[in-house]
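Anyone? Bumping this.
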Amino acid sequence: MESRNENWLAYTQEMIERNKFLKHIGFEFTELKPGHTKGKLVFQEFHEQQNGYLHGGMTSTILDMVCGYAAYSMVEQGHLVFTVESKCTYYNRGIGKEYFAEGFVDKPGKRFHFCEGLIYYFENDKKIIVAKCTTTMAVVN
Amino acid sequence: MESRNENWLAYTQEMIERNKFLKHIGFEFTELKPGHTKGKLVFQEFHEQQNGYLHGGMTSTILDMVCGYAAYSMVEQGHLVFTVESKCTYYNRGIGKEYFAEGFVDKPGKRFHFCEGLIYYFENDKKIIVAKCTTTMAVVN
Amino acid sequence: MESRNENWLAYTQEMIERNKFLKHIGFEFTELKPGHTKGKLVFQEFHEQQNGYLHGGMTSTILDMVCGYAAYSMVEQGHLVFTVESKCTYYNRGIGKEYFAEGFVDKPGKRFHFCEGLIYYFENDKKIIVAKCTTTMAVVN
Amino acid sequence: MESRNENWLAYTQEMIERNKFLKHIGFEFTELKPGHTKGKLVFQEFHEQQNGYLHGGMTSTILDMVCGYAAYSMVEQGHLVFTVESKCTYYNRGIGKEYFAEGFVDKPGKRFHFCEGLIYYFENDKKIIVAKCTTTMAVVN
């Protein structure tokens, strides 16, 4: 996938750097490519919902970010990305110690990027998907 | 709307009390009725995304909780509620100082509660909707 | 709600007139206002899915149209409307003889109209909602 | 993927056979496997929306069916499948002569099957995706 911005990496990193809520929840990006991001979360007690599992809001927040920055990596320098809408489907309870998330632009465009994301953990080498999302990202200049 | 649990208020409050991520982000419930919840968020710097607006993950987290506890207020004592899926649509950028959110069970059921939620702020007396959601909550015994 | 097109009624009617699939399934619009449409379906045997209920595809098609033409009634003359995405939630089985549907623009905009729709029937004067949708409509000039 | 029903093929075919709206729109299933279906549509004039493209309701109807019967192929004999909710995202305008659709169970379960589907056509050997869906199917006994 090719970015509209030759300076995409620095631009995406700058946007990530400025995201304060990302830091507040402890998520980290581990890989950035044009139209594709990966990141990691080390589970902490403050991430829990009422039953001790990963909070669904943590899940949706992470999915929003992996998709959002996948979109940012594709747009022209100075253009902004906003979430129009996102649907998250919860496949399995989040009972991992470490979570991995990926987001990608499935259908790039001038006005929208249609993105997909997923978050998972490993239970003895078996990948357990916690949730998937489909998201419309608008490009604003 | 009538709850299946005559002890619904204590049960819902207990579940809210146990939610650690709710505390981590600073959201507070202000009103609980069977099938309907309201809450409030005082905006803080750590809620920001890259442009200084309310992070979309904050929005989706709050919407998940107002709907989730609206569903909890309706189920039998001891039954649990899990988010099956949720779609959030973002109507306006979040640039308020205080946010208000509401969640309600739009269609109750034995196996699912179909819920809707919204989050808004006021700009001089004018209500600005930041986002709305439609959510399927599963009831598990 | 005010339309950007003073000629909105003729423009919307012309678009409805040209819609061949609408005729094929037998749906009829009964009321058009800026940003709000209503219509009616008389149930016929060919609308059935495998259990004799109204087919979910009939439901989603009708919801798409009541929302789509609600959006058409708001745009400038000559502008087109396309469905970006739509989520339908199915509240009750469709076992009516006549169905009524409504679509409205919940949040108008230049580039998108966020719409909502619902379809229902009556069981002795009681309104039974079959399904609701939330839909993003893009405006293209 | 393994079905809970050793008689899954006959059961799924019987359900397809009974679907009258499927016949009314001219869709045909071409391949059935446990948890995976494929089908085909030859475009006809009555499938058109107002601009001569494939109607979005046709798209959502087909996606509902490829997912629904993928779910039917997995459930126990006599159990029924109902669509809980579905989100369709429209990637490209439908301007093909023949359309191909696929549905699959992405996450099977006892109470739900989470399904995904897509519909596409070919433009000189290039696959053009018209739309994708994510759908929650409930299993009812």
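Late reply, but here is one note on the structure posted above: The radius of gyration of chain B is 15 Å.
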